[in-house]
Amino acid sequence: MLLISCPYCGERPELEFVHGGQAHIARPGDPSACSDQQWADYLYRRDNIKGVHAERWRHTHGCGRFFNALRDTTSDHFLATYKVGEPPPAQAQAQAQLRKATT
Amino acid sequence: MRDLSAARQGPYVAASPLVRPLPPMTRLLLRGGSDTLAAALAALGLPFTEAACRAVSESGRSALWLGPDERLLLAPQRQLIELTQLLREALGGRAHSLVDVTHRQCALEVRGPQAEVLLNCGCPLDLDPGAFPVGMCTRTVLAKAEVVLWRTAEHSFHLEVWRSFAAYLSKILALAARELTP
CATH number for the domain including A45? Predict the structure, then answer.
């Protein structure tokens, strides 16, 4: 079974987690100032990356917390998990770039 | 007048030497920041720890870590009013959420040298005492049902099960136990 490392609880089976979509999407500060296109982009448009993707995950059947993860969508390999509000770990990014360069 | 006697009966628990229902108790779900939780636990005479997945117990009362801002408080059945009064005094003016979940859940005890094996029939967590020591507690899934699992002794687990899952889970555990017991 795939193990996912929750930043609060440690390694847990994937059964306990729920995928929460793409991470690091900021809600526009003043929605009424947005054009329809900008608002639609914020609501609906998501990256569809083949490779390392920053995602939100929730440890639903555990501590209940949302956190962010870097996951390779081609191999389902989790490069890193980190708490909400933290930047993506540099080491994992480097690892990701390395993987990109070698493939 | 409708006959409500069936609704008054406790959730069915299948007989098994490894699994037994625990007596009713008081359950409160408390959420709040660290200082709020610390004040609440101090009022209940419990030590406060931020360590993840750890339960603290003192004279019949327990606080189980469910999340960084969430604790499940367990106490003997008769202490509900006393507990809510203590918490009201300790938490007055502090932002918090306190929910009485006494009747939402019921408790099972899984006990015996093969308790880990039995739980691993439906729970993929590593329950080796090295990875899941005595005093560790967590919300997890057991045969797809959400439970709170708490290791109270080396061969004893306290299981908090939602009432509507209790019959299903106790039957599953009883079935699995047939493979283990002679």
Answer: 3.30.2270.10
